[in-house]
Amino acid sequence: MIWTFLLLLACANDEGLPAEPSTASEQKVYRYLALGDSYTIGTAIGPDSAYPALLSDSLSEAAPQDSIYYQVIARNGWTTADLKQGIAAEQPDSNFDVVSLLIGVNNQYQRRSIAEYEREFLQLLNQAISFAGGDKNSVLVLSIPDWGVSPAGSGSRSQIAQDINQFNLAQKAICDSLNVGFLDITESSREGLNNPSLIASDGLHFSAEMHQIWMRMIYPIWYANLQGT
Q1: Count of domains in the chain?
Q2: Backbone dihedral angles phi then psi of residue 96, each to the nearest 5 degrees
Q3: 42 in a structural domain
Q4: Inter-residue contact 93 to 127 (CB < 8 Å)
Q5: Is residue 188, in this structure, part of any structural domain at all?
Q6: Is 155 inside a domain boundary?
Q7: CA-CA distance, 1 to 70, in Å (whole number)?
Q8: What CATH number is associated with residue 146?
Q9: How far, in Å, CA of 41 to CA of 225, rounded?
Q10: HEC sequence for 149-180
Q11: For residue 15, with 0-12 CB atoms within 10 Å meaning exposed, 13-18 middle and 19 or more buried, which class applies?
Q12: Residue 74 and residue 82: Cα distance in Å, rounded?
């Protein structure tokens, strides 16, 4: 499922669907687009506990006079190719204030090549920039968490860690080449090896507590960005 959320006082249109309200003169509506996979939609914990929702809630609390609209394009199991197809189906506009991109764990899980990942990730990153109106400073790439620390990855933790590191190095190099922000959340995910509370009940994904950690890492970056808009 592709999740789209409105953290707004929205009214219903003729079809009974929520509509993005017009902006009052004294109110700003900030727009956030989160692109990704199972981590972005909070598989095993629910979308309301995932970092995009937590981030939007925190930003709303920081500026209660304004509104946060956020859209999530993600699905459990998505690779870079799947995300490209999901974006094509959803067709987001180019008026987002901030855009985040977290993708690649399923490329690693499916043993897809680094070369393929680099090619498709670059395409996705350029799309993310376009959704932010061409402003590279409004795009943030999140590194791939290490699922090898979970019980599901216990049989090959070392290999998974090596693979995840290679994918992260590849995407960071692309981010650096385009001067796009890159945030390492991988090391925080590895704390799950010795802290079971950071692992979700399915024994594979990460818990709401971990998503809170990620939100607190992203928040100051996004808050500073939105303050400048």
Answers
A1: 1
A2: -85, 140
A3: yes
A4: no
A5: yes
A6: yes
A7: 16
A8: 3.40.50.1110
A9: 23
A10: HCHHHHHHHHHHHHHHHHHHHHHHHHHHHHCC
A11: exposed
A12: 9
Write out the two tokens for 204. Answer: 């594979």
Rounded to whole angstroms, how far apart are CA atoms 145 and 3? 21
Fill in the DSSP letter of residue 29: E
In a domain, 107, yes or no: yes
Cβ distance 137 to 181 under 8 Å?
A: yes
**Which H or E element spans position 33?**
strand 29-35
Higher-confidence residue: 196 or 10?
A: 196
Residue with tokens 């700003």: 28
- pLDDT tens, position by position, 157-206: 999 999 999 999 999 999 999 999 999 999 999 999 999 999 999 999 99
Bridge partners of residue 32, in order along the sequence: 70, 98
Looking from the CA of 44 toward its CB, the CA atoms found within 13 Å total 18
pLDDT value, residue 63: 80
pTM (two decimals)? 0.88
| Residue 109, amino acid | Y
Q: What is the residue range of 51's domain?
A: 28-227
**What is the rounded distance in angstroms from the CA atom of residue 208 to the CA atom of residue 225?**
25
Q: In a 3-state reduction of DSSP, which class is residue 17?
A: coil
pLDDT of 94: 96
| Residue 214 C-alpha from the chain's centroid | 10
200 burial via Cβ count (<10 Å: 0-12, 13-18, 19+):
buried
**Banded pLDDT at 26 (limits 50, 70, 90):** low
- Of the chain, the end-to-end C-alpha distance in Å amounts to 31
